Amino acid sequence: MKRELISVVRLAVPVVAAQLGLILLGVVDTKMVGQVSEGALASVALGHTWYFGVMIFGLGLLNGLDPLIAQAHGAGEAPAARLWRHRGYVLAVIVAIPICLLLIPSERLFGIAGEPA
């Protein structure tokens, strides 16, 4: 039991650190922009909502690879794990292109939605 717990903690620490880093990034952004004005803070919140809404598609798609890689790794099939990881890299590039194309006209889309500059 102790050995398994140590293994789980070793796997979880980088994930937890990454998530905390992302949360702290949002906190720092909010603190900095909140000192400028309420309108600036509202703009950042709207931009973040649009960005996150578009990005969640790619994140969800790529998170589907986690169990495939973990299963191959757990079964001791290193070549299969590498193959799934490589496919993940390729999929990330393929998905990044339409996501970037959706984010490029953001300013125009906000204008169409009636948001002030």
SSE pattern:
HHHHH
Largest sheet: none
* Helical residues, percent: over 70%
Q: Work out the count of structural domains.
A: 2
Secondary-structure blueprint:
Elements: H1 2-34, H2 38-63, H3 65-74, H4 78-103, H5 106-112
Helix pairs in contact: 2-4, 3-4
Features:
mainly alpha; 87% helix; 117 residues
Short description:
By secondary structure, this protein is mainly alpha-helical. It has five helices and no strands.
Structure explained in plain terms:
The protein has 117 residues and is an all-alpha fold. The protein has two domains: 35 residues; 81 residues, no CATH class. Helix content is 87%, strand content 0%. Helix 2 packs antiparallel against helix 4 and helix 3 packs antiparallel against helix 4. It is flat and about 55 Å long. The termini are far apart. The relative contact order is 0.07. The mean pLDDT is 89.
